[in-house]
């Protein structure tokens, strides 16, 4: 199959600089052994430290958001150019916490995705339904709308530089994971949406991650599924020993 398996930590608003330094140094040897791609998405204040410490290692650094404009009067925002300039390679776009607390919309997700791609950053685009939406039986409708919106105006070459993360909102930080089958079903559905738009070759090459309470206990089962090509991990990315287990599971899952 040859899809890239990517295990990405999303630290969210955690870790002061000394704590970040310690964790990254602990992660380096685990990442060396890993056969999947290892990414850590860290708060802006830790990005330079992370880039510095990971130079010459197998860990790639990502940010947790970027603005869609390259510069201007946007107090408190950081542009994709600024991230690229300091050596960041990935950026999380449209995380449900940004949709929920910071008025992120499908339109701004699309604009941020384009801004990231324009400067050569790889966006990790997050989609996923709320609990009420799953209970209403509209998971696929929600995920399709979010996915189609995020990829609007992207070329096939753009798609090759994206990752999409299926993160059911009800599973984030709740300890309630989607079952392997639930996660696989939606990840396969996302691949089908991409195949309809860009053809099966592009869709087959796209890394589709699962995120939502992925942890050392459940990772192997999720990652063994055919359409789950890695994880976007919150809580379990904050401890080196936990994240190490996920890296191992990533290597043992599908072919990297
Ligand atoms: P948890 O792994 O803490 O549930 O967070 C998942 C997530 O939101 C990753 O982006």
Question: What keyword list fits this structure?
Answer:
12 helices; alpha/beta; binds 1,3-dihydroxyacetonephosphate; TIM Barrel; globular; eight-stranded parallel barrel; about 260 residues
Mean pLDDT: 96
Total count of strands: 8
Low-confidence stretches: none
Q: What's the CATH topology label?
A: TIM Barrel
Quaternary structure of the protein: single chain
Which structural category do the helix and sheet elements fall into? alpha/beta
Taken from the alpha-carbon principal axes, the silhouette is globular
What's the arrangement of strands in the largest beta sheet? 1-2-3-4-5-6-7-8
CATH class: Alpha Beta
Q: Which hetero compounds are present in the coordinates? A: 1,3-dihydroxyacetonephosphate
* Sheet of most strands: 8 strands, parallel, barrel
How much of the sequence is in beta strands? Answer: 5-15%
Roughly what percent helix? 40-55%
Going by CATH, the homologous superfamily would be Aldolase class I
By CATH, the architecture is named Alpha-Beta Barrel
Measured distance between first and last alpha carbons? 9 Å
Count of the domains: 1
Compute the CA-based radius of gyration. 17 Å
């Amino acid at each position: 199959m040859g899809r890239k398996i990517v295990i990405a930590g999303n630290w969210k608003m955690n870790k002061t600089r000394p704590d970040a330094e310690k964790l990254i140094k602990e992660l380096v040897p685990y990442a060396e052994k890993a056969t999947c791609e290892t990414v850590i998405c860290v708060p802006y204040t830790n990005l330079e430290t992370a880039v510095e410490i990971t130079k010459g290692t197998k860990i790639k650094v990502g940010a947790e958001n970027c603005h869609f404009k390259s510069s201007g009067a946007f107090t408190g925002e950081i542009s994709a150019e600024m991230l690229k300039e300091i050596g960041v390679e990935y950026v999380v776009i449209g995380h449900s916490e940004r949709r929920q607390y910071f008025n992120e919309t499908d339109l701004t997700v699309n604009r941020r995705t384009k801004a990231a791609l324009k400067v050569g950053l790889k966006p990790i685009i997050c989609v996923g339904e709320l609990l009420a939406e799953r209970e209403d039986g509209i998971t696929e409708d929600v995920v399709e709308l979010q996915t189609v919106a995020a990829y609007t105006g992207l070329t096939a070459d753009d798609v090759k530089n994206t990752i999409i993360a299926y993160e059911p909102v009800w599973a984030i930080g709740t300890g309630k994971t989607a079952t392997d089958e639930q996660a696989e079903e939606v990840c396969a559905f996302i691949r089908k949406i991409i195949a309809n738009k860009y053809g099966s070759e592009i869709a087959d090459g796209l890394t589709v991650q699962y995120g939502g309470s992925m942890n050392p206990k459940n990772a192997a089962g999720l990652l063994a599924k055919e359409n789950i090509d890695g994880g976007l991990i919150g809580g379990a990315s904050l401890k080196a020993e936990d994240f190490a287990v996920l890296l191992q599971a990533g290597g043992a899952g599908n072919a990297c």
